[in-house]
Design goal:
It is a single chain. This protein has about 70 residues and is mainly α. The protein has one domain. The protein contains three helices and no strands. Helix 1 runs antiparallel to helix 2 and helix 2 crosses helix 3. It is elongated, with a radius of gyration of 14 Å. The mean pLDDT is about 90.
């Protein structure tokens, strides 16, 4: 049981670090999100997912204004 929870949190940590990289965060902040993913798991993914959505929404608004 604990092995599954540890594995899930490690997976969340890796995905959190990858999404932080996609958002353009510095290496220090990526490390913080990695640690946050280890400790908080899916909650950290939710926070980063919302940030990604805001970033994409802002990029789409800029593209629509340019058109």
């Amino acid at each position: 049981m604990t092995e599954a929870l540890i594995g899930a949190n490690v997976l969340c940590a890796l995905i959190s670090a990858k999404w932080a990289l996609d958002l353009g965060f510095s290496e220090g902040r990526q490390l913080l999100y990695l640690i946050g993913g280890l400790l908080l798991g899916p909650f950290m993914l939710l926070i980063l997912y919302i940030r990604l959505q805001y970033k994409h929404r802002a990029e789409n608004k800029l593209q629509n204004k340019a058109s």
